[in-house]
Amino acid sequence: MKPEKPGRFGRFGGRFVPETLMGPLIELEEAYETCRKDPAFQQELDRLLRDYVGRPTPLTPAARLGEELGGLRIHLKREDLCHTGAHKINNTLGQALLARRMGKRRVIAETGAGQHGVASATAAALLDLECVVYMGSEDMARQSLNVTRMRLLGARVVEVAAGSRTLKDAINEAMRDWVTNCAGTHYILGSVLGAHPYPALVRDFQSVIGREARAQYLKTEGRLPDLLVACVGGGSNSLGLFTAFLADEAVEMVGVEAGGEGIAAGRHAARFAGGSPGVLHGTYTFLLQDAAGNIAPTHSVSAGLDYPAVGPEHADLREQGRVRYEIASDVEALDGFRRLARCEGILPALESAHALGWLAAHASRLPQGCRVLVNLSGRGDKDVDQAAARLGVEP
Ligand SMILES: Cc1ncc(COP(=O)(O)O)c(C=O)c1O
């Protein structure tokens, strides 16, 4: 869906940045507008998505899981099978091509779970760009496998020890770098966040997920699903899926945020359940903040959902009532992880496990035979140690 005014989604979105970033954002907006309409750019991206990423990713029926959950017809959109193991690569390849078109030889990125950092380092290696990734020290500790992957791919990983030492602080540092070096540097933002044009640009690069899924579902099932479910960190894998179905009024959509250890306990990352509108990292959206507007600490078992803001288009979709936003707790997400592993032989990322955990917790309230399409945004290799420890599995 196109924003009504450039960069606006209803009353959300916009461009709230220091003067020094207006120039680079306008340059990016113009370059993106040109590339979006350029068949040569789109062909090159399509070719990379096919020959390098492995698209189209399959739509896999999850019959045993559906049976265990009381007779649901579940399909999984398998973004876990993308090269590098998550949907993030769709966006980073698009933005790395854009950087090259703009004549920028250096890219920077921020990362929480490490998947966006790995995907940025991968795209940079492929296109021969210098790459620097900012990552909070807390996330570096819980996602050390991905830190090693980025370094092997030739990226420099910069540890951010400020604040909560997670994604929010990594974004602050990346923005600082960009302000200083914008002439030769492109900032590959990892989700549908930040100032215009990022939320629309990242959504467009991820919308391939939904376009494929819709066509695949129609082809194999002869109709559309009843319900789409996807986890919402910044919100890029969910919007990537939802965008293709927004006009299909009969298709319900649920975005699942991280309920952590509970809303009442204040240890969560559920912006819609516990937040209010405000500005963070250049955009007006729902945030976790205190009464004075200070950003509140967040918590999730999954690093990729542990962020105090949500993409502005989600805030608008919620206000329109088009998408419902629900939560899955850490415990429910771990239950989703275990069920998918045992029923289908697939280890999901802990982020994606939130979508599965919500589904398992609410299956009894869905009609028998309900046709559910779950976006499996990534694979669980990076989370194996943490999931095993929490599920009491011996190493
Ligand atoms: C596998 C996976 N899924 C989901 C997310 C959450 O991001 P988004 O909401 O932008 O899809 C992340 C972020 O790191 C991730 O690595």
Notes on the protein architecture:
With 395 residues, the protein is of the alpha/beta class. Helix content is 44%, strand content 19%. It is built from 16 helices and 15 strands. It has helices at residues 19-36, 39-53, 63-68, 88-101, 115-127, 137-142, 144-152, 167-181, 198-206, 208-221, 236-242, 271-274, 312-320, 330-344, 350-362, 384-391, and strands at residues 8-9, 12-13, 59-61, 73-78, 106-111, 130-136, 156-160, 185-188, 227-231, 252-262, 267-269, 276-280, 283-287, 324-329, 371-376. Helix 14 (330-344) crosses helix 15 (350-362). The chain starts with 7 loop residues before the first strand and ends with a helix. The model has no long low-confidence stretch (mean pLDDT 97). The structure holds pyridoxal-5'-phosphate.
Q: What does this entry show, briefly?
A:
This protein has helices at 19-36, 39-53, 63-68, 88-101, 115-127, 137-142, 144-152, 167-181, 198-206, 208-221, 236-242, 271-274, 312-320, 330-344, 350-362, 384-391; strands at 8-9, 12-13, 59-61, 73-78, 106-111, 130-136, 156-160, 185-188, 227-231, 252-262, 267-269, 276-280, 283-287, 324-329, 371-376.
Considering DSSP H and I runs of 4 or more, what fraction of the residues is helical? 40-55%
Main sheet makeup? 7 strands, mixed
User: What's the overall average pLDDT, rounded?
Assistant: 97
Please state roughly what percent of the residues sit in beta strands, choosing from under 5%, 5-15%, 15-25%, 25-35%, 35-45% or over 45%: 15-25%
Rg, Å, rounded: 19 Å
How many alpha or pi helices? Answer: 16
Question: Termini distance?
Answer: 46 Å
Ligands (ions, cofactors included): pyridoxal-5'-phosphate
Shape: globular
Structural class: alpha/beta
* DSSP, total strands: 15
List low-pLDDT spans: none
